[in-house]
Design brief:
Number of domains: 2
Structural class: alpha/beta
CATH architecture of the largest domain: Alpha-Beta Complex
Order of helices and strands: EEEHEEEHEEHHEHEHEHEHEHEHEHE
Distance between the termini: 11 Å
CATH topology of the largest domain: Quinone Oxidoreductase, Chain A, domain 1
Strand content: 25-35%
Shape: globular
CATH class of the largest domain: Alpha Beta
Radius of gyration: 20 Å
Number of strands: 16
Number of helices: 11
Largest sheet: 7 strands, mixed
Bound molecules: zinc ion
């Protein structure tokens, strides 16, 4: 089967003929892939960014944003059967370790993540443990279903915080997660949603603006002044940093009002910030890492009902054979979400 494979510890990917996977454990499920999104982390693997190198073992079939159909199930699988349409968690948790027993499945200590430490979904077939799977309704197409995983990332960021109807929300970073976070904050009753991006994000910011959110270009405008102007001089009630950019925590501290909240979803490099500002403003900071099973059920509801309509975000699609083009397009920041399909 033709698959997108990261083979070498250097920039790039290869399209290779790989053996079709077969079930080797009783809790496994074989999926026929319908669509698989390219994640920001896949772009980091593609570029071979230093911080991503420990997160993957090579050679590896990439892709964890998978939607597909169950083809075959292991002997111990009771909740899924051939024909079920599903989306999959990167690693659903072992269910037995300390963190899984606390219900913190995203912190499982035995993570065998697909597309990183196990074969991923940029291929016609992929194997996942049953605990990673969630059923999707019959009317939901695989393209939209493949975006449920990033919706879950944005949703979990907001789940960690205390957003009340009428709050003002700033989102730093206009990538797919940032746009989804803006949509979710809006649907959750935010009074206003302001999205910050860079001049190179121009095309993405255009879409954000069309969606009705205020856009601020941080390397051209005075972002702190512009946010204060729109929030009675106080700053935003909530600031969600999904950018993964340098120095954004310090910016978030300047943007948030006294007693406000900051959520960190993006994996930004280490950068200095002033803890005195954090203390004096009595800011509450929430870290957010991937999602919980409860997030999946909510995200599937939101995407399948189109209360969160992900279709405008799906800007590119390519078969496995032309995956490189799709990666390059996203690296040029020309698209928002690209999907890889088997054919
Ligand atoms: Zn992802
Ligand atoms: Zn575990």
């Amino acid at each position: 089967m033709l698959a997108v494979v990261k083979t070498q510890p250097e920039p790039g990917i290869e399209i290779l003929d790989m053996p079709e996977p077969t079930l080797t454990q009783d809790d496994q499920v074989l999926l026929e892939v319908g669509a698989c999104g390219i994640c920001g982390s896949d772009l980091h693997f593609y570029e071979w960014a230093p911080h991503a190198r420990d997160e993957i073992t090579l050679p590896r079939i990439l892709g964890h944003e998978v939607a597909g159909t169950v083809l075959e199930v292991g002997r111990a699988v009771t909740q899924f059967k051939p024909g079920d349409r599903v989306v999959t968690e990167t690693w659903g948790g072992c269910g037995r370790c300390y963190y899984c027993r606390l219900g913190l499945f995203n912190h499982c200590i035995y993570q065998t993540r697909i597309g990183q430490k196990a074969e991923g979904g940029m291929a016609p077939y992929v194997i996942v443990p049953d605990i990673s799977l969630y059923k999707i309704p019959s009317h939901m197409n695989f393209d939209e279903a493949a975006v449920v995983e990033p919706v879950g990332v944005a949703l979990h960021g907001l789940e960690r915080m205390d957003l009340k109807p009428g709050d003002s929300v700033v989102v730093i970073g206009p990538g797919p997660i940032g746009i989804l976070a803006a949509m979710l904050a809006d649907r959750s009753g935010a009074d206003q949603v302001i999205v910050l991006g860079l001049a190179v994000d121009r095309r993405r910011l255009e879409l954000v603006s069309q969606m009705g959110y205020t856009v601020i270009v941080t390397d051209e405008d005075d972002a702190v002044g512009a946010v204060r102007e729109r929030t009675n001089g106080r700053g935003a009630d909530l600031v969600l940093d999904v950018s993964g950019g340098p120095g954004t925590f310090s910016l978030a501290l300047d943007l948030v009002r006294r007693g406000g909240q900051i959520g960190i979803v993006g994996l930004s490099p280490e950068a200095p910030f002033n803890p005195t500002t954090l203390a004096l403003k009595e800011v509450t900071v929430y870290g957010s890492y991937r999602r919980q099973p409860s997030t999946w059920y909510r995200a599937i509801n939101l995407v399948s009902s189109r209360k969160i309509d992900v279709r405008p975000l799906i800007t590119h699609q390519a078969p496995v054979a032309r995956a490189e083009e799709a990666f390059e397009t996203l690296l040029r920041r020309e698209g928002i979400k690209a999907l890889i399909t088997p054919n």
